[in-house]
Amino acid sequence: MNKKGGLAGYLFAAPGFLFFSFFLLYPLLRNFLFSFYDFKLTNLNDKTFTGFANYLHVFQDSVFWLSLRNIIIYGVISVPGQMILGFLVAYALYQNRKGTTVFRVFYFLPVITSWVVASLIFKFVFTDQGLLNYIITDTLHLTDSTISWLSDPMKALLVISFLGIWKGVGWVMVIYLAALQGVPKEMYEAASLDGCNGWQKIRYITLPAVRSTTLFIQLMLIIGAFNVFTSVYLVTNGGPMHETEVMLTWMYQKAFTEYDLGYASALSYVFAVLIAGLTFIQFRLNKRD
Amino acid sequence: MKIKSYIGALALLLVLSLLAACGSDTNGSNNNGTGSDGKSGKETTLTFWHHYSTASPEEKTLTEQLIPQFEAANPGIKVKAVAYPWDQLHKKLQIGGSSNDLPDVARLDIIWVPEFQKQGLLVALDEKFADFDETAKGLLEGPLSTGKIGDHYYGLPLNTNTKVLFWNKAMLEGSGLSKAPETTEEFFTAIAQIKAQSGKAWGFGEPALQGWNILPWIWSNGGDVLSPAMDTAQGYLNSPATVDILTKLRAAAQAGQIAGFKPGDVPVTEGHAQGSYAMMAEGPWAFAQFESQFPDFKAGTAYFPRGSAGSIQVLGGEDLGIFSKENGEESWKFVKFLTSEAAQVSMGKVGQIPVNLKAMENSEIKNIAYFAPFLEQLKTSKARPPVAAWPQIDTVINDTMSSIFMTDRDIKSELDQAAAKIDELLKQ
Fold first, then answer.
1. B224 shares its domain with B111
2. Domain housing B111
3. Are B286 and B80 contacting, i.e. CB atoms less than 8 angstroms apart?
4. Of B5, B55, B257, B344, which has the fewest CB atoms closer than 10 Å, so is most exposed?
5. 3-class state of residue A49 by DSSP
6. Burial grade of B186 (CB within 10 A; 0-12, 13-18, 19 or more)
7. Substitution target from B1, B6, B91 for chain A, most A beta carbons within 10 A
8. In terms of CA atoms, which chain A residue is nearest residue B403?
9. pLDDT number for residue B262
10. Are the Cβ atoms of A27 and B10 closer than 8 angstroms?
11. How many CB pairs under 8 A join A and B?
12. What number is the average pLDDT over the span A105-116?
């Protein structure tokens, strides 16, 4: 019985495992091997083993450090931005009052909007003679000179972070909406009787009650921030002068524009280790809490 | 998750390309198979890769007019034309070279020919085809030379082009200028005047900072990228003449007189027609764009501003290269057909400047008014250095110019570094 059950178990697991092995495990291992070779897409037949040369090259590469800096800037702006706004929206909309459904739909719309469409629209809004500069200079007369949102690296990063926030608030809202339903109403009533104001209720009842949700959201958003690609690729394409390059755009550039697959493989492993390390630290910190 | 799937995609691509490499062998035997079957009705299908924009008048003429004509005149040969964007075509050919997935014939930007020749992908036309000289005699000499590497010809010119100075009459007149500037000095005075007159517009639009964009300025001022022997950039890219013109251009860009190359800038050709850029340097295709997008705009053209060395613009254009190992003769027939007078006249009518001498004398071509300034400018145009490493050198130039035009770094030391990098590339 036991043995038979065991075999059936393996059989059930086999398709999934084979799929995983062929499409994930094998490429991952193969990619790891490539990272030790000088291997170009333009010359697939000629691979030379170069040891840790690719990894060394990664750490000496100034654009790698730039991309790391940019990803941190993006994360520092967009992660708290999405979480705070998402929470506030959820808090405002979690009771089933009249009209809340309409607002929930509106806040969620950016989430289901394609990244490509959203990025192109943002680019259109923020170009030198785009909608925003038109409003700032011609409608509101705040300044005479146009603001170059996309050619100044810091401003461009701000635009991209803002796009990330706009796109992500709805998702955070939905997760918080679910969590807020689980906070017992009696606690709010008791707090009211004790004379708590609105802020105190959020601070001492709501936030602690949804703490595990907050941790989950934080983790997902940080991983998401490390994976930002489409918006950067379409809005600035890493320019000017690689100043807005992020990890994935730099990897893409190396692999598919310069065809340096060995280097790009090494880069992908460095990034993977970074993300894994960060996630591990987060888990540790949260456990201690 | 995304990163994993990304890595996965990358590796999958590799696996697929390996499979594709195996697959090409079977393709080969398939071809042999059809060859033996072919006794009943022998038919060869040529693959032709090009970068005419999809659904452009040029592409329509090619697929609806020229290819049917060729097929009718050459029973047994079919042509399958595949369009790619310019940069994609370059990549497809680069990768195709190592995975053995190449077309029979391709339309190549003249600057790619040395690269693909070095990789051993192109057929030496004058060696393989006996009537090469006869065909070549009927073509324009300058463009013909772009296919020659060492002692042999690896490409036959298909079309040529260069850029001229476009000027927006209304904008120049608004700034008190009755005609386009003729010299570099007049040019810098004019753009300053235009900026002073209309604060929101720019005097000149330059859409990018690659060799194609910057070299005319350097050449016209007496500078260069490489030595005449094309073995070093030292003393040429960082010569005083180069530093001098770049200093002036940067000052103008910083004063808001030149723009167009930064992310977020107004697109140059559209901006020129709509009054954002008073002048620009562009190719004959700008006329096609004006015609479809801004039919009311009347473009004015003039020589590119003359510097101490003259008015030297960059030579553009395309060559036809043969990659095919099996269908050489059929490919050659197609190449000859596309460079023939009739085909060149048909393409000329949709904006492609011909290279066939007879086609250039054809009255239908002579009637195309907007070709005239380009044909004049072509007389002094110069080709980018025909070296195999040009695409990489162009990247160095683009990066260097970006840091010159978008930061305050010292121009001479930026150029010194670039010259050192280019010399490295030339040694490989």
1. no
2. 44-154+316-380
3. no
4. B55
5. strand
6. middle
7. B6
8. A241
9. 87
10. yes
11. 101
12. 92
